[in-house]
Design goal:
mainly alpha; IST1-like; Ferritin; 83% helix; Ist1-like protein; Ist1; 2 domains
Length: 336
């Protein structure tokens, strides 16, 4: 029994020494982190002050959110430092009890919670492991998950909150910065909301105008393109006509008129022949095979008659052309 008690006392004393060493190392690291965080806070605050001096109060109101985040991180580091210093003074209470004393529940629970939220703090993580092995996993889990009666300090929970600060808190923080630096701040709540609404309306109107202008430009481009195509087609027709006229170099007006009338006469004869052929092809296509011979003979007869008709009409056309030639010659002679 005595050996067991000595072993427990020796283990407790060893845990207390290790805890004391870790807390001192954590305080040393906190001093470095605190100085670094102070620099970040001052930089963010100087940016807000510069915006206020330039008159960009709305931008400063947006930028002040970063100042609040940096300040919350600094406050959390300061709270961790205070709890660590409190543990250094009460290490004996942790050494002599197997359960967490009521006087240290808030301190231990808050440090366990902070260790779960701080990424780059190895000493604080080791302190959390030591408390978990000393007071049990259920105690540590209650603090990390913020269960009922976890006794974590509420301000520490607020400092590690991931929610964005409200508009009212940002406005109050900005007023403090402006007052501390002697800057006149004219940031009315209603005026800010109205300016925000006007800005949204202006953006909406600008969007509609840009859409309409884009549509008008597209229609205008389409009309110009169609006009260009029609102009190009007309020019190509004019070029082809001029080339065809240039290809025929007539000696005089009589020759040109003669050529025109001959072309018209032959075109009329060809049109009549094509019309008669189309009529013959549409006749009696559904006759039986018994009358195929007679139908063939009849077709040959009709084709021969058509050829004769075409020949006769060709002669008539040539006569008409000759007649027109004589008329043109006589007219041309009289004009001379």
């Amino acid at each position: 029994m005595g050996k067991t008690l000595d072993a427990l006392i020796g283990r407790s004393s060893k845990t207390a020494r290790k805890l004391n060493m870790l807390i001192k190392l954590a305080i040393s690291r906190i001093s470095i982190l605190k100085n670094h965080q102070i620099v970040r806070c001052s930089q963010a605050e100087s940016d807000v002050i510069e915006l206020l001096q330039l008159g960009y109060q709305e931008r400063a109101l947006i930028r002040v959110e970063q100042v609040i985040k940096e300040q919350n991180a600094l406050d959390a580091i300061v709270l961790i430092e205070n709890y660590c210093r409190l543990l250094v003074e009460r290490t004996e209470m942790v050494k002599n009890s197997r359960e967490c004393p009521d006087e240290l529940k808030e301190t231990v629970s808050t440090l366990i919670f902070a260790a779960s939220r701080c990424g780059e703090f190895p000493e604080l993580h080791e302190i959390r492991v030591l408390f978990t092995s000393k007071f049990g996993r259920e105690f540590a889990k209650r603090s990390v998950e913020l269960r009922n009666n976890c006794q974590v300090y509420p301000k520490m929970i607020q400092r590690f909150s991931t929610q964005q600060p409200s508009l009212e808190s940002r406005r109050n923080f900005l007023k403090q910065i402006a007052k501390h630096n002697g800057i006149a701040l004219q940031l009315d709540h209603e005026a800010f909301d109205n300016s925000k609404e006007e800005k949204c309306e202006d953006e909406h109107v600008h969007t509609l105008v840009s859409k309409e202008s884009n549509t008008f430009e597209a229609c205008e481009i389409k009309a110009i393109t169609e006009e260009d195509h029609s102009t190009k087609a007309a020019k190509s027709c004019e070029i082809s006509l001029s080339e065809s006229v240039k290809a025929r170099n007539y000696r005089d007006a009589e020759t040109a008129a003669q050529d025109a009338f001959e072309s018209a006469a032959y075109a009329a004869v060809a049109a009549r022949a094509a019309l008669e052929l189309s009529r013959l092809e549409s006749l009696d296509d559904d006759d039986s095979d018994d009358h195929s011979g007679s139908h063939h003979q009849h077709t040959q007869y009709e084709s021969s008659s058509i050829s004769e008709t075409q020949a006769g009409r060709g002669e008539e056309a040539s006569e008409e052309v000759n007649y027109l030639k004589l008329g043109l010659k006589s007219d041309f002679t009289l004009d001379k």
